[in-house]
Structure formats: structure tokens, C-alpha cells
Amino acid sequence: MARYLIWRAVSVVPTLLGITVLVFLVTYFIPGDPAQVLAGAEAPPEVVASLRHQWGLDQPIYVRYGVWMGNIARGNLGESYFSHQTVLRLVGRAFPVTLELALLALVIAVAIAVPTGIISAVRPRSWFDLGATAVGFIGLSIPGFWLGIMLIYVFGAELRWLPAGGFTPLSQGLPANIRSMILPAIALGTFASTQLMRYLRAGMLDVLNADYIRTARAKGLAAAMVLVRHAMRNALIPFMTVLGVQMGYLLGGTVITESVFALPGVGRLVLNAILNRDYQVAVGIILLIAAAFVLVNLVVDLLYPVLDPRVRLGQATSWR
Amino acid sequence: MGKRLRREARSISRRRLLSQAGLALAGTASGITPAVLRDLAHAVATPATGQPKRGGTLTVSQSVDINTLHPWNGTLNVWKVTKTNIFDQLSYQDPTTFQVKPKLAKSFVWTDNNTSLVVALPSGVTFHNGEKLTAEDVKFTLDSIRDPKVGSWLRGFVAPIKDVQVLDDTHLKIKTETIENQLIPAFTYVDIVPRSMGTDLAKKNPIGSGPYKFVEWIPNDHVTLERNPNYWNEARAGHVDKIILRPVTELQTRISQLLAGDVDLVYDFSLQEVPRLRADKSIAVAVVPPADQMFLVYLNMRKPPFNKLEMRQAMAWALDRQGFIKNFLAGLGRVDNSPFTPQHWAFDPKTENAYSYNPDTVGKLLEKAGYPKGRGLNFSFLVPSGYPEFKQISTLLQATFASAGYRPAIEEVDIAQWAARLNQTKDFFACVDYPPRGSTDPALTYSAGLFFPPVPANYLGLTPDMIPGYVDEIRKGATTLERGARKSAYTKVQELWLEYLPGPIYCHRSTAHAHRPYVSGFVPHPAFQQSFADVWLAK
After folding, report:
1. How many CB atoms lie within 10 A of CB B290?
2. Any CB–CB contact under 8 A between A107 and chain B?
3. Which of A260, A184, A295 lies closest to B248 in space, CA to CA?
4. A166 and B CB contact within 8 Å
5. Is ipTM strictly over 0.90?
6. CB contact under 8 A, B67 and A166
């Protein structure tokens, strides 16, 4: 187990290193630069050149990459060309917003997906199953930004039950904070729930048709016992993988939701950084998101042996 | 009680009556639509209703976040709106008359045989950090902006300055070679900072002497300003205690926030939303008449096909301007061929109908240019994403050229790439934009920016010898104080422009803002040099 842990942890390093090179190269080759963005389209070229020099953007790519990697080694992800705040400070402020949004969205997604997926699988081709599938398709087809705008309009502008966008920090009280996050979490979680529900339904159907379930039923076990102890436990293994990947997507894919709801999260931060060519921030955040994505998947991989004894690598030889 | 209230609501002060009558006359003369006039009248009239109250928080929604705290480097309109309240400038443009007037300066006087501008400052002005503002600080500011190492886009605005001399704490002399009419309007953009701050201002919190102090900037969330209780000019001191400026990218979210009462004012939104918001009685809409921003097309004259006059003329005849204004600007624009509108003293009436929409003429000009039925023609429109009006104009132009035989491509890129291709690589053929400064002094309009003045960096590739007499007339207008001579010079400049047509101007656009009815005293600024000092909350 320890060897497996170390092997998985070490395997993350080349992945992240590759990401740094790739992201840095992309920022180098896309046209446009932050000096031009700050100085504006009207600025004479010498003004832009002066800003480029101040920021070291006139240095060759390998020098810039070397400096950046050196800074990372010292725990410094750099600072924004525009706000001059460090990347860590910017992310430190934005990440909790995104994390809260992603977690709430995941809770909503799981709360919808798990019961719906299980009932649909237990009663396939029933009215409930057909209805859930139809709603699922609609959920998958609705663009996230449209749903967000509709939620804001109905519950914010018309009914005035919830804030019409904007973020209330936790420092202003948990209820106010949660109120500001309900609509974005619903907008984000709805899409995720439809995917999870369909995945869980398919997984459960496979498991429910397996021989050992028939055996369990033949032994006379209660239906609930068969469902919870035998079917769900096995169906949840691939579901957990999807959940891990989904959490990664939710963390990295909140750009549209954050823009629609005016939330100061990481998605909006990275979008603005890319549009402004704020390389340090863009590259720093993408690296952090990639690291988070890789770590979430690492955690999921490590959970496999807990859920499924066959995956325990240390016992692999005894299976033969 | 109800009757009395209604009577009070209908009553009108002499000042308000005069201002509305003036607006009506100006509007009639300038061809502004009654709806625009009504909104402007509302905007102007707001300060006269009730006694201003102090206190409260004004929450303003803006379309994007600011991208710097450096007073002389940032060019975004949202930053202009923010910093105008933090800093003082020597002069300001009156938002209703568009005239440039002294602000921090008490007076401007040309002396030394018109080779020096003496600026008088008030005494007793302090910066937000408690330091006294003196002529040394103004000199430091102007010298810094002139320093190429600082990298300020305003450098060209103050280019005629040869030297700045401090006479005493409240007087300084700005040396030039002759009268330079661009300077006083240029000073509306120059934010005065304390010299103790140095020039590395992007990394520091802004310290100015304006009616509001900077508190914090949380990127993508808000900028907070608080009232400066020690503002030197009581008549222009702020009323609300706090201003929160929130960047909300999504337009529908911004409008919903206003309808929900989550924000008090939505600053600058799409004109197409104006009819919908006008219909909502819980919202007040303020529309700035079309005057400052002009829709035009940059044509790259460095290469074919726009090195040919006929092709540039074809572009001028190719847009259905009325149709564009009606369908895409909710009627809130004005067809123009000049940077100025009729209410501007420099407007030349002869420009009014110089070019209009005529697809047949486009076909004939293509033939004359050597591209019969569009054969051999090759050009495209470069469009920045996120600016729908640029794409709408490009699409209308594309359709006209398609009917003449050639369908130009529309290449959509992000704003950073757009600016780099326009400014650095000059890798474009035609490009729609809406540059500002149609409402200011023509000396600034024709001297600053990269469109009208024939400087090496000019987008169009315009050089001084391309239009005979053009530079001479610009200089004549910029270097005399006599209004008649100036008008004559700028008339000639406008006519020369239309004759050689380096870049066709199509129309002017309004800008629209909406607020809750209790927001009083809000007068929108045509050039986004927006002061919130007069705004107060009647709730």
C-alpha cells in the first residue's frame, strides 16, 4: 500500500511539469500581450514597449519560463501584471468561492442523482424512469448560462426570494452566504446531476442483472438488503470515479456560472487573466487547477482499494 | 396631501425650466430624438429635485472589472469612472454643456507672448494621505506623464509641453512654443498625485485629492471608495458615504440586480435594452445624447485594396447607417460623417450628407477601383469578440459588398489580439471601432489618439503628406484662440478628411445608464469621466 501511494504521488510530478510547459508555450504563442491590453488600443507602440520591458516580456521564452519555475520552487507563483497582487493571494481569495460553489453543486447533483438513478434502475421503463430520463435529457440540453439567467430573473428580479447574483462572504454570516450561493449551485449542479443520474442508473442496472444479486435474492435476503449491501456498494465504485472527475470539472468549469452570477471565483479570475493576457495569473491558476484535478483523482484512486478489495495491489499475487 | 404632492411634483423651478428649454433648443438644432432629449432632461433635472442628503452607500454595477490602480496607465472606461472620483484633475468637461472648465485649477492664462500657460491652484488642498497639494505635485505629475519610461498613454496628450516651472506653491508655468488648445482639455485626463508616491503607482493604493478615497479593490468582486470628509471644495464634495463599484459581466444579471434592488445604478449598458427599461416605472433611464463616441472603420492604407481612394469611398457608401441605428442602437444614435455633432461649435454642416447608403455607388466604385463585380478583391473585417455592435456593422458592410460581387470575411478575435494586430503588427484590412473625443475641443480630437493625427503609429497609415494642407489646418486650429479662425480651420480639416477619406465615420452613439428612482443628482458624463460627487440617495 505504501509503495502504491508513493508510486501514485510521484507519477503526479511529470504530469504537472508537462502541464507547466504546455501552458507556458500556449501563452507565448497566442497573439496579444498584457502591455497592449493595459495601455489600450490607442497607446503609441513606444508606450507598449516600455511596459513590456518593465514586465520582462521582452525576454526570451526560456528565460521567462526559467524565472517562473525558479519562483515556483520557492513557493512563489508570481503576481498579476494588472492588480499586482500575488497569484496565491488572488487564488486564496477566489478558491474558497469556487470550492463552496462546486461542493454545493455536487451536493445538489448527488441529492438529485442518487435517489433518481437508483429508483430508475430498480423500476426500469416505468413512468418514473421515463420521466427521469426525459428530464435528464432536458437538463443536459439546457445551456448553463441560460438556466442561470432564468434563475436570476425569476427568483432574484421577479420573486426577490434570493439575491440576483453577487457573492456574500462568510464573514457576513452563513445564511447570507448560503443565500448568495443557492442559485449558482442549482445552475451548476443541475447539469452535473443529469450526468451522474444516467451513470448511476446504468451502473445499477448492470449490477442488478448480475448473478450474485440473483443468488442473494434466491437466498431470501430482503430486497432493501440486496439493494443496499450488494447492489449499491458495487455500483458506487464506478460512480465514485465519475464523482471524482465531476468534482474536478466543477472546480475547473465554473467559468460560465461565476460570470453569470458575478461570483469572484477562480473560473472568472482565470477567464479574465486569459483575456487580459495576465500570463502569471493564468498559468498559476491553470497549474493549481491541474494540481487539484490530479489530486482529486489520486484520492479517488486511493479510495478504490477501500471499496473494492480486488484492487488492493499488495494482494495481487495471491489472486493468481 | 396627495394633491399637494402631485402639485409639487409638477412644479418646476426657473433653473430647471431654463435648462430644459435650452436642451429642447439644442436638441431641435442637433436632430436628437425626443426620447434622448427626455432622458437627458431627466438626467439634468435630477439635481434640482429636493435637498441633497448626506449618507448611504451607492452600489454601482459596471460591465467589467478595472485592470489597474495606476492613474495614468489604465484606459478602460470603468477605470475612468472610478478614478475621476479619487483624483482631482486640473480641468473637467461639463457633462451637460460639454464645455471644458477649470476644476482643481482656479484659472488658466496664456502669457509670455502666448508661449506659457500659467495655472493657478487653490491653497489648502490636501491629498488623502494628509500631504498638502502644491504646484510641485502638479509639475511632478506632468513631468512623469511626459517621461517615456512611465509608459503612460497620455504622453501624446501633453506632448506640446516643453517644460513645467513652479512659480510658487499655488502657481506654475507650463512652457510651450505657442498656444496649444489641446492642453486644457487634455488636463481633464490628468490625475494629480502626490510626488511622494513616486511613479511606480500600479503597486500602490491610489492617493488623490478627490471627493472620494480609495478603500480596496477585490478583483472580480468590487472596488470600494469612501467619502473624503476633508475635500477642499465644499461645492463639489461627495454626498454618499460609500461607493461600491461591482463588475458584473453578464448584462441580464446587471439588469436583474437593478430590478431586484441589489444595485442602485447600472452604469453603461447596451442601448438595445433602453426601450425595455424605459417601460419599467421602477427604473429611471439616463441617456447621453450621441456626441462623444463615433462609429467608424479603420482602413489600412498601407496595402491594397484600401490604398485606393475609390475603395475607401465604397466603404463610406456601404453602410445603411439609419438602419443600423434603428435596429441595433434602439434609435439612439445620429448619422454623421464628422467627428462632431451639430451642437459642437466646430461642426461643419457640409459634412452632413457627404456619404450615405448607396449600394449602386459601391458597385460603381469597385469597378472604378479595378475590382469589377468584386473580381480580384481581397479584404476582411477584424472584429473583437464581446463588442456586438462592431460585428453588426461589419455584417451590414459585408452584405453590401456581397451584393456588389465580393463577400469579405469577418475575422473575430479576442480583444487582446485585436489590439495587438491593430497597433503592433498592423495585420488588418478593415476594422470597426468607436473611439471617443467627439465632444471635446477639436485640438484634442485631432491631436490625440491614433486615428486623426498623421503620426507614424496611426492605424490607417496616414502620413502628413497624404492630405495636402491637412496638418497645416490642424495646427492653425490648435494654436489660435480666435474662435472664428479656429472654426474655419476645422471646417477645412473636416472637408479634407471627407475628400481623402482615410477612415469613414458613420455615426455617433448614445450611452445609456439606469438607476433606481431614489438615486438623485446623477448626470452621466459623455466621456466616462464620471463624478459621483453630486449623487445622493433620497431614501
Report:
1. 30
2. no
3. A260
4. yes
5. no
6. no
